[in-house]
Structure formats: C-alpha cells, structure tokens
What does this fold into?
Amino acid sequence: MSARPDLSRRRATGRGERLIEVFLAGCAGVTGLATLGVLVVLLGHSVAFFAEVPLGAFLFGTRWEPMFEDPRFGVLPLVSGSLLVAGGAALVALPTGVLSAIFLSEYAGPRARGVLKPLLEVLAGIPTVVYGYFALTFVTPLLRTLVPGTGVFNAASASLVVGVMIIPTVASLSEDAMRAVPDSLRAASLGLGATRMETAVRVVVPSAVSGIVASFVLGVSRALGETMAVTIAAGSLPNLTLDPFSSVQTMTAYIVQVSLGEAAQGTVVYRSLFAVGTTLFLMTLAMNLLSQWVVARFRPEIR
Amino acid sequence: MTTAYDIAHGEEGPVLETRGLSVFYGEKQAVRDVTFSVPRGTVVALIGPSGCGKSTLLRCFNRMNDLLPDSRVEGEVRFRGTDLYAPSVDPVEVRRRVGMVFQEPNPFPRSIYDNVAFGPRINGFRGDLDALVEASLRRAGLWAEVGDRLGDSALKLSGGQQQRLCIARTLAVEPEVVLMDEPASALDPIASQRVEELVYELKREYTIVIVTHNMQQAARISDYTAFLYLGELIEYGPTDAIFTNPREGSTEAYMTGRFG
Amino acid sequence: MSEHRRRRRRALGGAFAAVCAASTLLGLLALGLLIGDVLLDGASQLDTDFLTRYASRVPEQAGVRAALAGSAWVVGLTALVSFPISVGAAVWLEEYAPDRWTTRALRTNVANLAGVPSIVYGILGLAVFVRALGLGHSVLSGALTLALLVMPILVLTTQEAIRAVPSTLREAAYALGATRWQVVSRQVLPAAAPGILTGTILALSRAVGETAPLILVGAVGFVAFSPSGPLDSFTVLPVQIFGWITRPQPEFRALAAAGIIVLLTLLLLANSAAILLRDRHSARNAR
It folds into this structure.
C-alpha cells in the first residue's frame, strides 16, 4: 500500500495566511475604534463640562450665552434652532422627494429615469459651503423682497437650501422602496379599473411606506447634522424662537463659531463644544437607528 | 436502511471512502449515515432525485462544504487512508489533490492561458508552464480549438468549450481524483455529449466521482453507481447490476422515471 | 359609473402626474439656479492668475493656489490612509469574518458611522489628532480626520462591490487549491476593482468638498503659502471659499463664487471619471 498522503498545512503558507487575516481583522477593528473614539471623546469632555455646568441647567436652560461675563449654557435655543431649520427643510424635501420618487418610479420611462435620477443625485454631491453661498446671495435676497422684515441671516433661507440638499436622500430611498413593490400588485390594481394615480397612491405608496418613512427620518437626520449652509445662512444668534424669518443659531453653527474663535483648551467654552456635539450626535444616532428599525420592523408588510 | 455494497478493494485499498458520514446545514440533515468507497481508477456515479444529498456528499471529498458557514460533518471521510476531517488536515491541500468541476462552467474572466495556469501558479509550480498548459488543454480535448488563441478571453468561448476549459484547468493541478457535479447538465446536447466522451477518456488516468441527473449518462460512463434518496445511500454496486437488477424498489422506481 | 365621474377621475390623474413631474423638475430647477447664480457672480473673476495667486487682503490680487495645494495634500493623504484600511476592513467583513455577534456589531457599526454628521468627526479630530496627539493644525490632522469620515462610506461601497462578485468564481479558485488570500487577491479583488475604484472616487470627492470638520481641526481662511509637508498648516478650497463668503465686501463674494466654480469643476471631473470607469466596466462585462 502506498504511503498515506500528507495533507497537513504547509507551515510557511499557513503563517502568511494567518498574518494577512490578522491584518485584515485589524482594519475592521479600526472602524470599531472610530466609534469608540467618538464615544470616548464626546463623553469624556462632556463629563468635564457637566462638572461645571449642571446637566439640568444645560438641558432645560433657555439662554445660551457662553461668552458673557456670567455665562449661561442653556442648550434649548441651539436645539430649537436646529429643529426649526430641519423642520423647515423637511417641509420642502418630504413632499418634493416623495412626489419625485412617485414620478420616477411610476410615470417616467427607463430613459427619462436614467437621466433624471443621476441629475437629481448631483444635488447631494454639491458641497454644503456652496449651498451656503447660494442661500446668502440668492435665496435670502429673494426672501427679503417677498417677506419684508426678513433678516440678512434667517432660518427660512437655511431651511430652503437644506431642504433642496436632502431631496435626493428622500427621493432616492423612497424610489428604491417603491420599485421593490412587485409589478403584480400594480397589474392587479390597474386590472380592477384603478387609474395610475389611484394605483400609485393606494397600492404602491402604502406597500412602500416603511422605506418612505425611513427616507424621511434619514433626511431629517442629515438636515440636523448639516453645518456650513446653516452657519452661513441662519447666522449666529442663539434665539429661542419659532419665527423662521429671524436669525437662529443651530448646534452645528455654534460648534463652528467656537472653533473659529480658537477657544483655549480647558476652558468651559471649549468643553461646551463637546456637550453640544454629544447632543447632536445622540439626536442623529437616534434618528438613524429609528430609520433602520422602521425598515426592519415593517419589511414583511411589503412582501 | 443503508445497504453498502462491499467492493473488492484490490491491494491498494479505496481512494476515497466514507464511514457513517452525516452532513448538516444548520438544523437540516442533508446526508445520513453514508458508508461507501471509491476504488482507484474507476468512475463512480452518484444518482438520485434533486435535493437527495448527492452534491453535498460530493463536496465532502474536497471539503468544499467548509465554505458554507453553518455546515457540520459527522463520521469519517478518508482519502487514501487519511481522514480528511482530521484537525491537522488543511482543506487547501485536500483540494490540490482532489479536483472539482462544477455544474455551470465557471471560467475566470481572464485569458484561456491564465485560466489553465492559475492552479499551477498558486501551487508554486516550477517548470515549463507553457508545456503544462498545452498538455492540460490537449487532455481536455480543447487544444485543437484554442491552441492558436490562448490570449483570448475565456468568456468568448462557447458553453461547452468553457466547461472543457474548466476541466483542463482542473487537470493542470494534476489531481488524483476529479469530482464532477453534473458537468454536462447546463450544456446543449452536442456539447454535453463531448463532455461525456471526455469523462470516459479521463477515467484511464483519474479516479472520477460524478453526480448526474441523466440515467443514460450514468449507465454509459460509470463503473459503479450509488443511488441516494433523502440523504441516505439506498443502493451501491456495479453499474450493470444496479441498472439491470436493482435490489431496492425505490431505486427501480427512480430509474424508470416514476419519481425524481 | 357615470361619464362625469370617469372624466373627473381622469382629470385628477392627469393633474397628479403633472404635480409629480413638477416636483422632480423643482429639484433640477434649484440645481440650475444654483449653478447659474455662481457662474454669474464668479465667471468674471476666473482667469489663470486666480489659480496661481496666493490669498491676499486685496481682492484683486487674491487666488486659490494655497487652497488648491492644501486640498491636494489633504485629500491625497486621506486616500493614502483610508483606502487600504477600508478595503482591508471590507474584505475581512465579506470574506473572512465568522458569523458571530462581534461581526454583526461591526457591520451595524459601519452603517451607523456613515450616518454620523461630518462635524462630529471634526470634534473627534480636534480632540485626538490636534490636541491629544499634538499634531497641531496640520495637513496630517486634517487628512486623518477626513480619513475617519470617508472610511465608513468606503467600507460600505467596497463591501457592495465584493458582494457583486459571483460566488462561482470563488468556488472555482478554492477548488483548485487556492488559499483564502489567493482567492481574494487574485480573483475577488480584481473582479471588484472597478466598483471599488468608482466608490473611492465618489468618497474622495466628498472629502474634497468637506468644510466643517477641517475648520475644526484648524484649516484657516487666510494662508499665503502652499504646504510643503504633512505637518505644515494649511487651508483647503472649501474653507477658503467660506472665508471669502464671510467677508462683507462684495469683491470677496465674487472671489468666493470663482472659487466655487473651480471646486465644482474639480468635482465634475472626478464624477465623470467615476462614471466612465463604471460604464467601461459594464461594457466589458457585456462582451
């Protein structure tokens, strides 16, 4: 009988393979470290901040006056500023985005779609500082002639451009969801004598609702995190107001303002950067998780 | 009840054998307690209805099942006496000695030459690579058709040529055993016939285990036939005996087309 | 059903279709207005001198040379750092990772990182690279910050490109006795390369346009020299543009518009390259 074959691992190859695998796993580990870094940095500095400013005064204070002799760190004006801008942006982007998605998915032919969709997505690729310029030099002057009394810096102008900015997010994800609706459902509805519109509104949109809602949440989350356009257009007055035609300061704009002013390390103003950053991070994280949950939770209804 | 046919092993013993082999995918058991052996220099056909575990069984012989995340193997698979699932065994070494041809032709998106040379290159072949490529293509009966255009993309070949290229690619590694998973089923009848003839020629040099759906094919090319049903080995023996005088009712029922 | 009602339904359907089409065009209209606005304001400022002059307090003598050089430095280093790590991470997640909770956590984590606002990366960069590691307001701090920012995007697109490689290719290579790394390096990555490169170009063009995180790590609006090493201070094109926007004089507004034209042209070129790459690849596959 011939000798049994030796099937054991060649040592040199095995070691090389193992080394490569460890390197690759390390690369994946870096992505984990990035998250850890975000958490440690934000929370670590926030703890130092809250040692000086009580958490309650931060969360429920209605005045944000960090540079004053007697500084106040009530975050509500910043949060309301962010929500005002993001809410306005949602008013622009949600209907526009969903109607665009219906058009692209239910009405446009493959060729029109092939041209329109990439063009729409160009909107998402334009740097935010450019939107800021557009808001300041085009949208704001227009608003000021239409609505007398509008400030040079105002929330409405920021809302409009941020809204335009997130149209592709809403339109793209909603359209994906609508196109995932099987054609047999459309055929059934049309076969029962429904018009195209009735099919779109009563069959396709309800079947795609989880994807559409997820796109809303993701779009609003983007709007909350948007920085340059709102810094340029909405100004830097931390107002606790619901008036879209006055100047507000968002959380992101405050962070830019402080970093431009070169706050010394170790001061309470420097630390406030992290407290505000944490607030922003938690809000956007919650919305991203919500959108993932919506997609996962309601997926079976599509099928 | 498994009735493994006792095959005369000759002096060298079987090339491949299994003892009490079971394979699980997660909770599902795909192969149940199979014991059989493959003598050197023979063609063994695995037949049975789809989903009966033929391919799963085949993929135990070169440990391709390892690539599926939740597959689990119990029992023994031996290659010339060595347990293929022993902890010291490297599946990569196993696959260098036990080649495999798949149902769909799956050439790499490269030139014809690079397809055949891939195996020798990764295995550190030192020698005349051109000669090895030519010899492999000749053995697969493809040299006459592609010898003058080795630099062309393999994807330009017809389906039948692609499958014979995949066979040449397997032979270039100089395996001892070739596993074939329905190698002709995705081809048109003429291309299918050529592949079948090729298998018949190859059995002079290689031990071959072939999964097939085609009863006539099994009858023509194999020395032994194993019939599997629902993961169990129902009957195993010389092809003549199985086809002319099956001992199990279900084997006969399958072969006469009553199910499957 | 009455004839009247049927006609009303049809009219309603027509109106709805028109509204949907108008919505789609609304976004495109905004795009057109934006580009028109910028061109109108900036085109007159644009000449070769604008590209070769450094920043200046006198608007007529200001240019984007330092900003262009800074952008090239930062994005180049960003690519150098983020590309190998992202591809490595994606390869591990797709080809190596065992199906364990840690793997699933890493996957979810990458998706969540891609949704973190860019300014939060700026805060991270400020605390870690600028302050803790003492790299200061340098090109390197900026590049590492942007590398963290584009990494999740790059990992996700690379994962997608790897998933698109047919599994039959992997099986064929494994069956010939290839090791895992041989399968990955000689079959999977070459097959996924066009997708990975397209994704990389798109991710890096996002880095080219990023402003806020670089302001946090100390890119400043007024720099009169090009960086000559990774530890030099720097500015980048979008930050330079922001600096000009915030000046009250209208001459600087025009400079900002001219800068935006340069920036958008660069992005257009990058995106065209990405589309070209993708189309050439799909043409090759169809052959």
Summary: Residues 1-10 of chain B have pLDDT under 50 and may be disordered. Chain B touches chain C through 28 residues (CB under 8 Å).
